[in-house]
Amino acid sequence: MVAANPMFKGGMSLRKKFLATAVINDIWAETMFFTAVGTLVAAITKLTSHQLLLDSGLLGVLGTVLGLVISFRTSSAYERYSDGRKMWTNIITYSRTLAMTIWIHISNERPAPTTDGRAPTELECIIEKKSMINLVQALSVSIKHYLRGESGVYYDDLYPLICFLPKYANGGKTEADLLPLWQASEDAAYPMEHNPPRHSGTRSNSTNTLTSNLNSLRNKSKVFDPEKVLPVVEVHRPLNPSRNPPRAGFTDYFPFLKIFKLLAKPFRSSPRSQDVNMRAVLGRKQKPHTCDSNVPVEISLFLMNYANIMIRGGHIPASVAGTLVGGINNIQDTLSNLERIADTPLPFAYQAHLRISIWIYLLALPFQIVKNFGWLTIPGTCFAAFLYLGFLEIGQEIENPFNYDLNDLDLDDFCFMIQRELHEITAHPTPNPSEYVFSAWNQPFAPADRRTAEELIRNEEQYTHAEHGPDSQPGLHSISRTLLKGWRDVDISTRK
């Protein structure tokens, strides 16, 4: 997501600065075309006896109408962009709440499930809770890939977090027993070994040659490498990179040549369904098939099942159980809203009619202004084309803010934020407050009383404060006066 002026921002190549402006790359061909029309009209009118003129009365009427329509188009697109950002803020909040609820409120001291069963140890409970919190992180990552039209689970930033989930139903080990989460992710080019040998010792890295090469380059240059903190697991197929933007082709820099790409489409063989790094005819990322598994929903099922088991076993307070279940349901509701934004563009008829109207207006513009502008018709037409077509393309650019364009939302950064916060939550071992409250570092009554908690406990019987006067009495009455004085000091000191 480009939030600052890319022309004056360091760390970006010239190519990225050019692409960050979005509209220039998309409309330069059309702008040059209308500029050429304006040049032709101005040259014929000024250099020959032919006067290519039209009544300018149409200019004001159509300009006002088109301005209003384009304004509505851009506003509606930005509203979707803003809604997408709000939805991801909700996912961050719900993920944080889920992790805190699992980590703090689910007990580490549990009784045996049955009379002849064994009670889980504290280490087992912590491992269980940390694994579920990793699933919360995987849920946001899977939503990112799902919104980008990348099906399956075999990605560098997703598979290591969910590879321990069950793959087969009823203890089976055949392809017919594969659960939906894994069935939809399978590829004939990389068949799963249904009876893999058991490995012992340290697990090796993935066989993804591309990822290994990238990691080696990253390690040499010490650049950003978020995947290295994830679990190292074995996998039967190469993992796709966490970021897989469509490859930029020749027609992406010369959009008017896409007509030849469209004409050649019937004669090309269809790409593999798993090749998510392909572009559609008009340059958009190809969507997964509708029969593919909804990975975020599948992960949510495991989280909901875990919540159900914890509630039935009485391992979480009843008053907090609603927070756990509600957090999972809220993420599902947010996912539905994100799907609505990604899969419901403005009707094609509206977009086509608006573009045709702009084209007619820009074609007629030189004929209406050449009489008064003369040779200035050329830059005037160029500026008008850049203005109208630019706003139109901006609306189309931000209509779906979940792709790889530089002006789209930075979904990877949102997922990294969730990852950092979840690990920050689990970094706390949930100690008893008595272990850190009554220490020499804590001054609970400051600024009224700057003695530490350790000193206060040591002199509990003689607790008083010199500022209270001779009528002060030790005990609760004196504590109340201390708290009241603390409020008064803060109130005075913090007012400008």
From TrEMBL:
InterPro entries: YneE/VCCN1/2-like
Keywords, comma-separated and alphabetical: Cell membrane, Ion transport, Membrane, Transmembrane, Transmembrane helix, Transport
Membrane topology: Multi-pass membrane protein
A GO CC annotation given for this chain: plasma membrane
An MF annotation (GO) of this entry: chloride channel activity
Signal peptide: none
Subcellular location: Cell membrane
Location (main, coarse): membrane
Transmembrane segments: 52-72, 348-367
PANTHER family, per the entry: UPF0187 PROTEIN YNEE, VOLTAGE-DEPENDENT ANION CHANNEL-FORMING PROTEIN YNEE
Record's protein name: Uncharacterized protein
Provenance organism: Collybiopsis confluens
Lineage: Eukaryota, Fungi, Dikarya, Basidiomycota, Agaricomycotina
